[in-house]
Amino acid sequence: MPNEKLMTNTIDASELSFNDFKSIVINDYKIAFESRQASVLGRREVLTGKAKFGIFGDGKEVPQVAMAKAFKKGDWRSGYYRDQTFAFATGISTIKEFFAQLYANPTEGADPFSGGRQMNCHFATKSINEDGSWNDLTQIKNCSSDISPTGGQMARLVGLAYASKLFRQNKELDYLKHFSVNGNEVAFGTIGNASTSEGVFFEAINAAGVLQIPMAISIWDDAYGISVPAKYQTTKEDISEVLKGFQRDPDQPGYEIYKVKGWDYPALCEVYEKAINVCRDEHVPVLIHVTELTQPQGHSTSGSHERYKSKDRLSWETEHDCILKMRTWMLDSAVATEEEIAEIEKNAKVFVRNAQKEAWNEFLDSIKPEQKQVVDLISGIAKHQPELAKIAANLASTADAQRREVFTAARKAIRLSASFGSPERNELLAWYKQQAKVNYDRYNSKLHTNGKEGPDMIAVVNAAYDEQSKMVDGREVLNACFNENFARDPRLVAFGEDLGNIGDVNQGFAGLQVKYGELRITDTGIREMTIMGQGIGLAMRGLRPIAEIQYLDYLIFALNVLSDDLASLSYRTKGIQKAPVIVRTRGHRLEGVWHSGSPISMILGALRGMHLCVPRNMTQAAGMYNTLFRADEPAVVIECLNGYRLKEKLPINVGDFTVPLGKAEVLEEGTDITVISYGSSLKIVQEAAEELSLLGISVEIIDPQTLLPFDTTQVCVNSLAKTNKLLVVDEDVPGGASAYILQKVLEEQKGYFHLDGQPKTLSAKAHRPPFGSDGDYFSKPSVDDVIETIYQMMHDANPAKYPPFFQ
Predict the structure, then answer these.
(1) Is 289 an active-site residue?
(2) Quick check: pTM over 0.85?
(3) What are the b/e assignments for 323-356, b being 16+ CB within 10 Å?
(4) Catalytic entry in 595, 611, 754, 767
(5) Greatest CA separation found in the chain?
(6) Residue 231 gets which letter from DSSP?
């Protein structure tokens, strides 16, 4: 059957008979050859227009079969998009599923990795069920969802490997039987030689060496990065030469580094067995540099490598093709005869062709009923409007119509028949509306996990106080919150720059490393990308990480990891994987270009799929943390940088009270104007409101508390219905987060209909604030700015009552 899984087996020469050995080798050759045929046929399918684009793993088949032999249940892969042979050899993917993904088939079960949302060779295994509950990850050969940025998998790889260290060394985690068996799991990473030039690669390599974790990184080296040869990519044209300083010795920890030719099947099997045993048993990171690989079909379907490779290089690649070399070795070693190999190759071509045809036919068969329905429905309308018959005829004659053509025809017919009501049109309209819901699930669902532990499922518990509740610094509220939760949940870990020994630069974790140990509260180096990756990997393995970025400005250094990987994880896997990372940081007002950042619009644009919490004080932040610690979706929490030493009352239930996400709060009621703001700017607005009240202006102040999600109960529009005037005060750049808030309130909540004047925004200047208090005053909204902006709005509405200030 085309969907059969044919996996590789470990070779143990000491126990195998020759016939057993022969059977394993022949099976490995079969897997490699089938994978090559899948690449050849996949490229052809793109060039004939059946698929949009393709990148394939041709030339890497034999080392990936060898790697698969060392990959066990419970292990994890974090690779890149040329690992199809590994996926076939481990049983992670069938060839039919590979083609279903190439065709972007969204039918349930066709592409089990992404539901038709990702390009071919982007694999993933099912970590969670529909309700968000975990599977037993120790019984799965796990594959974290691939992303296309060529080095992007490296950050997450660090976290996947680091989890094994925590599971082995922290005995409090022994009860998590479905996530680890004594930390024996290895995290396998793969990357192309050209991508080792990227910063995230070096950052991850260094982090793993420092942490001493079971991370096994394989570098597939075919000497090029698209058209750019190694001499422009890598010092000495050899990445393992560059990394020699990481090699461990008897006195210093480091890596075990191996180098092996990618066409040498027995050597590859030996190296992978040895390297992974060291990695698994000793928790030492290993690097396997696989050299002399080829890329027979070039980089991708977008062009041919004959354009940039010399005739000598192309001739060398033909001679050193890993499958050809393995074939020759099998003949020379009498493992198989020419006739046996020829039979394997003939059958493989038939098998792969059948798998491709079945995947293509199933894709079309999922659309054909919709095509017929729309043709029939439009034809029915055409009885009253003959000019629509052409639309139906064109759709009916479209061979291999995809869903886009079907819906384009349906929507055009609906538009053209708008003035001609009929039962047939009503039927088409009803069909279209029903299918819109189906297509939402196919193409738009699962931006969030939306499971039984989603943030909206967490009970709301109000902060409680008694006569003994004392006023403390805001940092002490956070510290007490973290302390209570770390005592409650051993899965919680926290790490970041200066977080451990000194308890973070603002003392939110002061004293907690001594109490809970270095495994749970840990300092890191300055490496924002892999701090985020550390969090992603830990969360994917069932732990609850708090990954700290010291200042909000520094989040930019990790934005690629958060945006490409974490924020898109639930969506791109259609909900089969999750990573409930809490990114803790601090920002807004303080001093200067580098510590006053509020790049909220950048975050809003890049991190859909995560929650964005913007608490106005540390009590609200603690309540949000309490919610997130009990929920299972990722979030960024931005604490107010100037609030750590402001006094707040300490709740008696500091580790238990919760602040719901998406629920805006009216801080002060008013009748004249609605002001929406968040974070540190709220104190500015509240101070301004006091003076405005003396001028006879009543301000209603709303704190959305979270920007993702935003005001799900429509507090803002209800306020606007009362005041009819709107001002958004924001520390982001002009047209930044304030534009997002306006879109939410005026468009989504339909607040536009309640306005009796132009809505206004008051934001920071377009540049970062200069250093010093004066720099802050003249760059970000001040109390004076808020007073005068609101007064001007009132003047515009009633000049007689509110005469101008400055004329």
Answers:
(1) no
(2) yes
(3) bebbbebbeeeebbeeeebeebbeebbebbeebb
(4) 595
(5) 102
(6) G
